């Protein structure tokens, strides 16, 4: 096999996802409940991380043992709840940035329902403005907001030294449903959302070029979920 990606039809991809989910560590009852409720209440719930992705993030966070976590984009609080559960032992401080008033309200309900307000702080408003006010460093940063803002947000993080020396940035949806690769990449994408994801793909092409050319970071783009980029600072030279 010379490539890193298998070719699946949507039906095959769904079957593979189910297989992987069934053979991976399961998410908690709280996360299952929140997932089901979000899917039932929000038409755009496909923006939420999948249960398999949540299990992956929990696995990574338990390995990294972060003390401070920052996420840009909260949605209904699913990823924040994941980080919370993954850092019970380290009692990580979790800061989540969100602009959309509907999502802010949903996240507040989530945090109150599951009793995570002792370690989860929600900051309302434009992420670019919120980032300017943050201080200190974060061990894990999750970027999952408006795709045309990724380059600005990560550049701010690097310029302000918000990423810890041994920290990692995880950027989600880098494939933009395939539109980052090519506008012809995903013939199964519904036409009603194609313009939205096409615009996102163009923004993420610029983001990927920015990362590749930034001398401060090492980057790997993984062909999992909807494209996942891992970013860390380059090692210091002895």
Automatic annotation (TrEMBL):
Pfam families: Methyltransf_3
InterPro entries: Cation-dep_OMT, SAM-dependent_MTases_sf, SAM_O-MeTrfase
Protein's UniProt keywords contain Methyltransferase: yes
Single GO biological process annotation from the record: methylation
Keyword S-adenosyl-L-methionine: yes
Record GO terms (molecular function): O-methyltransferase activity; S-adenosylmethionine-dependent methyltransferase activity
SUPFAM superfamilies the UniProt entry points to: S-adenosyl-L-methionine-dependent methyltransferases (SSF53335)
Keywords: Methyltransferase, S-adenosyl-L-methionine, Transferase
Recorded family membership: Belongs to the class I-like SAM-binding methyltransferase superfamily. Cation-dependent O-methyltransferase family.
PANTHER family: CAFFEOYL-COA O-METHYLTRANSFERASE 3-RELATED, O-METHYLTRANSFERASE-RELATED
Protein name listed in UniProt: O-methyltransferase
Protein source organism: Dichotomopilus funicola
């Amino acid at each position: 096999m010379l490539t890193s990606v298998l070719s699946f039809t949507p039906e095959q991809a769904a079957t593979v996802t189910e297989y992987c989910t069934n053979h991976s560590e399961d998410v908690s009852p709280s996360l299952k409940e929140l997932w089901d409720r979000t899917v039932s209440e929000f038409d755009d719930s496909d923006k939420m991380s999948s249960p398999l992705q949540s299990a992956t993030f929990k696995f990574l966070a338990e390995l990294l043992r972060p003390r401070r976590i920052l996420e840009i984009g909260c949605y209904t609080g699913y990823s924040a709840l994941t980080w919370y559960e993954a850092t019970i032992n380290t009692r990580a401080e979790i800061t989540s940035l969100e602009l959309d008033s509907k999502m802010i309200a949903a996240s507040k309900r989530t945090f109150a329902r599951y009793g995570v307000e002792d370690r989860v702080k929600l900051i309302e408003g434009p992420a670019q403005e919120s980032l300017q006010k943050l201080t200190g460093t974060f061990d894990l940063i999750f970027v999952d907001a408006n795709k045309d803002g990724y380059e600005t947000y990560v550049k701010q993080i690097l310029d302000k030294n918000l990423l810890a020396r041994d920290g990692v940035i995880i950027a989600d949806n880098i494939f933009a449903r395939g539109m980052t690769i090519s506008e012809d990449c995903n013939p199964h994408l519904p036409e009603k959302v194609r313009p939205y994801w096409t615009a996102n793909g163009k923004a993420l092409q610029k983001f990927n070029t920015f990362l590749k050319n930034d001398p401060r970071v090492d980057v790997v783009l993984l062909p999992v979920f909807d494209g996942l980029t891992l970013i860390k600072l380059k090692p210091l030279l002895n």
